[in-house]
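hi! just following up on the protien thing from before. the input was this:
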Amino acid sequence: MEINNVLFAFGLTLFAGLSTGIGSAMAFFAKHTNTRFLSVSLGFSAGVMIYVSFVEIFKEARRVLTGEFGDKQGTVYTVLAFFGGMLLIALIDKLIPTEENPHEMHSIEEMSETKGKKKTDHKLMRMGLMTALAIGIHNFPEGLATFTAALQNPSIGVAIAIAIAIHNIPEGIAVSVPIYHATGDKRKAFRLSFLSGLSEPVGALIGYLILMPFMGPLTYGILFASIAGIMVFISLDELLPAAREYGEHHLSIYGMVGGMVVMAVSLLLLM
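and the predicted 3d structure came back as:
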């Protein structure tokens, strides 16, 4: 495996993870939450992830596993790994307390509510720190997904990285709002929000160091099918509900369809 491919995949994962800083910056420098933009963008991200998961990643995993074990057994392994990926991310979500869930929606307008309030609030500070930790845990498998996809197919890796970057923007707001409420310190809120996204490249690095020496057809096929399951679950459980909460229901669906169309066209152009 060429070192340039590894560096490119790692760079994509770093970009996707650190986009939490974009959300934090939006919270500090924008005056109003552009809910329509966030709604369409999150829907777009979901469309990209769902389409590429079913059309490319699941198909590739099935191709590898059926080539190794035959049509029936290989397909069974693919399906089991797909739902296993869903189960993994669902368990991670289950372990995160609801009140500290990083996908709890926040608006930029909340930043101005600290005026006239006590700047040190331990409960809010704890919420912000726990949210950052929750994002870190939650984004770990996302980093591995982006990295692995980019190693296999750089164009798909770019699409997944952009989709995950979009969905990390509201997470950056979710970390920075409570920390800023608690401390009144924009720099600290931005720093913690920014750093919470580092778990994605860390996940990629650990995955590379642990899995790559054993990366045969079985490991690769199961990992790829699991990644497809993880991304579909994230899209249905997080991105589309968040998109609807930020704006109109139809906007999130239009964004999702748009994401699928863009992904389909890009894949056709690369054929």
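Residues 114-120 have pLDDT under 50 and may be disordered.
The chain has ten helices and no strands.
cheers
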